[in-house]
Amino acid sequence: MLIIGIAGGTGSGKTTVVNKIINSLPAGEVSVLPQDSYYKDSSHIPPEERSKINFDEPAAIEWTLLVEHLRLLKEGKTIEMPTYSYLTCTRQPETVTVRPSDVVIVEGILVLTDPTIRQMLDIKVFVDADPDDRLIRVIARDCIERGRTPEIVINRYQDVLKPMHCQYIEPSKRYADLIVPQGGSNTVAINLLTDYIESRLHHAPARGMAPGRMTV
User: Fold this and answer.
1) I need a labelling partner for 95 at 20 to 30 A (CA). Which of 37, 88, 140, 207 fits?
2) Rounded distance, CA 74 to CA 80, Å?
């Protein structure tokens, strides 16, 4: 089993990179564990207070559960991955069955901040993007998918997302084996990463990715 961590700022294009990797590999060969599924449950907090929770710091994630699930998958065991609602800021009763596969991708803004998770990763990727581009994507996503107004999104970006990015996410870039500028539009980097994954899966000498950090 190959475990890949894909991190990067909010709106950097991580999900696009993940989807392109999945589409480039045979069906059923890749399982994805989104970091967002492991947000701590906030159902015990009054609804009016949940909007004030900082979801962009490591303390918001139930890392122990994520570590346990990765360990179980490596042991060949099936897990029940939690689900999380962005609208209610609570963990949902439904779970997603995830079976062991050749490739497991852990994706999220804070994936490279946790030392235990980093030790479990075979490949560490950081998806980089210009701050203005990230903000535009965040506004479009949160307004359409999460029912927020542009004013709320911009205020949250200034008050939470930007300072947390500078404090936690950007510094985690130094742990990456591969830095992918331009997010999901960087076809060269995605092809390089996919080739490397395929070479590892077939136990062949790695093509294209030299030891140490690489920026494409």
Assistant:
1) 140
2) 14
Residue ranges of the alpha helices (H) in 60-156? Answer: 63-74, 115-120, 131-145, 150-156
**How confident is the model over 137-179, as pLDDT tens digits?**
878 877 776 767 878 878 888 888 899 999 999 999 999 999 9
* 3-state secondary structure (DSSP) of residue 82: strand
Token pair belonging to 161: 């997302």
Cα separation, 66 vs 16, whole angstroms: 22
pTM for the whole structure: 0.85
Q: What are phi and psi of 183, to 5 degrees?
A: 55, -135
**Please, which residues bridge with residue 79 across strands?**
98
Q: Are 130 and 62 in contact (CB under 8 A)?
A: no
The tally of CA atoms less than 13 A away on the side-chain side of residue 44 is 2
| CB-CB contact of 122 with 200 (8 Å) | yes
Q: At what angle do helices 14-24 and 187-201 cross, to 10 degrees?
A: 50
Element (H, E) at 37: none
CB 189 within 8 A of CB 178: yes
Pairing verdict, β 214-215 and 178-180 = parallel
Where the chain has pLDDT below 50, the residues are 204-211
